[in-house]
Design a protein that fits this description.
Elements (H helix, E strand, L loop, with lengths): L1 H5 L5 E5 L5 E5 L5 E4 L6 E2 L10 E6 L2 E6 L6 E3 L2 E3 L1 E3 L5 E3 L7 E4 L26 H18 L3 H16 L3 E8 L2 E9 L14 H10 L4 E4 L10 H4 L4 E8 L18 E9 L11 H44 L10 E8 L6 E10 L2 E9 L3 H16 L5 H19 L5 E9 L3 E7 L5 E3 L6 E2 L18 E4 L4 E6 L1 H4 L10 H11 L5 H16 L8 E8 L3
Parallel strand pairs: 3-4
Antiparallel strand pairs: 1-2, 1-11, 3-5, 5-6, 6-9, 7-8, 7-10, 10-11, 12-13, 12-16, 14-15, 15-16, 17-26, 18-19, 19-20, 20-21, 21-24, 22-23, 22-25, 25-26
Helix pairs in contact: 2-3, 2-6, 3-6, 6-7
Length: about 550
Amino acid sequence: MAEAFANFPSADLTVIDPAGHRTVVDLRPLPFRIGRQADNQLVIRDSRTSRVHAQIFLEDREYILEDLASRHGLFVNGKRVTRHRLCAADRIEFGVPDSFQVVFGREGDAPASQEVTLAPSPRMTLPEDGGDLSKLRAVLDVARAVQNSFSLEDVLATVVGAALTITGAERGFLLLRKGATLEVRCARDASGATLREEDLRVPLSLIHRSLQKRRELLSMVFDPADLEPGESAAELELRSAVCMPLLKIQNNDMSATSVLSTANDTAGVLYLDSRTLRRDMAAGNRELLQTLALEASTILENARLLQQERHKHKIEQELDVARDIQQSLLPAALPATGWFRAAGSSVATHQVGGDYFDVLRTGPEAWAAVVADVAGKGVSSALLASLLQGAFLTLSDHPEALAATMSRINEILYERTEGGKFATVFAALCDSTGRFSYINAGHCAPIVVRRGETLEYLEPTVMPVGLVAETGFALHQADLTTGAKVVIYSDGVTEAENQEGAFFGKRRLRDVIMKHAEGSCVELHRAIVEAVRDFTGDQPQSDDVTLLVIEIVPK
């Protein structure tokens, strides 16, 4: 194809804009794509045309025009086509009124019988001077793009194109704030071609001046006689430039920016310049340009809100996954008869933490109880809690196995996260004789409740798992031979807040336990849960509320 094209006469296209102005472009390279997308060979600045509307290619030494599944169709000399062999003076239209036309060849190429007048088609009703109408239409194109386009880049390109049409500038750059700097988000020239960021060689100090002053408009006209050699404007041979600040719209409130003022913060700037027009490019167009700047500000705010909503939706999806994981960790049933009994619950907050509890039989006459609180929120913490549960599922009825399991969990967790993720864990083994072996790795101190005796607290014996590489996990003992209840809880219980910001606290927990010490594990569990609920009311909680009460009944 390339070799055939090299030996084939080149062709031209005459592009006619809605105002009747024409431009001749070289039909290279092939295939030659036409549409509103910026990387097409011919960019049509009309949001109603398709992104890649049509293409022209060479086949058997003839130029072929082909519709690329466009939305509004492709027309040649008034007839809709999907594929057409081009002849001199063929007029190509894109299925929408008051839009661009393309004529195959130059003005003088048409034969006498097919002479083409390079003017608006019969569909158009334009005055002789279409300048003002084309400017208005450019603004309307922006409004239409906002309604119909799902691409922020396409809409911003339409904004820049409209500004170029209104001012007659040759280059347009839309820059957005990124921290303390400005970043080029969209750049086009008057033909619709994409410019590189490096093409903006204008001193950023001029653009920053517009942002700092936050004026409605900063229009500059450069007289070559007044410019010193070496100045950027002189080096670039600039004759005029326009800066339009784009203001941040607060809370999507249009009234906040209906009058541009220095009270509003700026999101960026629309910069335009020309090397040929030595005049105030904003003259007579200020209202249109202000409307365009406000529209651009609205677009950016809507894009920010959409991104925020998508981020929120993604977080909600992750939290749903975390809730599912957390619920799957809870035991389906707890022992309610025999010498070992238990009652437990875990109420997840909206954020979902890494709390979990479990009770499992480790032998004919032995049970294990575990309550863990993984640092952090969301899916990662819930997954880590599931890892902990899996490690304890293989626990045997030998107390030494508990220390070995905790050591292995600590080793794996530290290797994977290097101390970045840790968990507080209380794990215990109890046999039918009342021997109670436990390890408290940085967890809230469980409370032992014996009939007629003072409360005993099982304070932490070692640091949380995953925090330090090498930690010894020594076993500790508690005597439950005469029967007792053990209240194991996460910090979400004592740190439960009411509407005044007060915590439920250890004192209230102790008082509830003392008041219901004679009840069963089920009754004591219910009393604590109700007390926390009555205290917090409807106040949302920042941490999961996990509570496990085990009871040893002597045989």
